[in-house]
Amino acid sequence: GIIYRIAYTGAGGAAPGPGAPTNVQGANVRMTGARVPSPPAATPAQLASAILGRAPGSLRVSSPAFQDGARIPETYVAEGEDVSPPLQWSAGPAGTRSYAVIMEDPDVRQDPPFVHWLLYNVLAEVTSLDEGVPGTPRLEKPKGALQGRNERGTLGYYGPRPPRGDSPHRYHFQVFALGTVLNLPHGASRAELLSAMRGHVLAQGETVGTFQR
Known about the structure:
The chain has 213 residues and is mainly β. Helices cover 6% and strands 30% of the residues.
């Protein structure tokens, strides 16, 4: 994970002075080999909520496991138990038929955001998720809910695992109230899910957790 720069000091060349910085693929390094972390990219416009546009209504989203803007406990990260945290949200407006949950990290350096969780067709009477939603295509609780592919290529939840040395990454748990039950099979990609949701979002909200390794 450390990149070194080697300079030739023969005729016509001069080595940079000790500690002279260089950038290689966005990672700041020095001649000593010590890494100077780059700040994560701030790209909230890439989030699903921004792509789908402002919804007419809003939802209050929270987690009993962490406060909005606070650190996500180790239980819910990839190197911990890697289980999904409990979530809860206020009921959607009249006409809500289902909910979708999308968890994304916009602070990755390449191709933001990193998709950690896609969950959809959560029926309208459900306004919370227990801890540890299993990574199965179709859930028994909440009954009938489907899960899509995360960025790792698996179904269900994949916990935070930012690069070591990065500033804290932000993990957006976004909940959408939809005026339809999506005609979409399990295993959908983010692009497929957003395409199916477009034009059906009645309300949305989010809570954000952070994590740094």
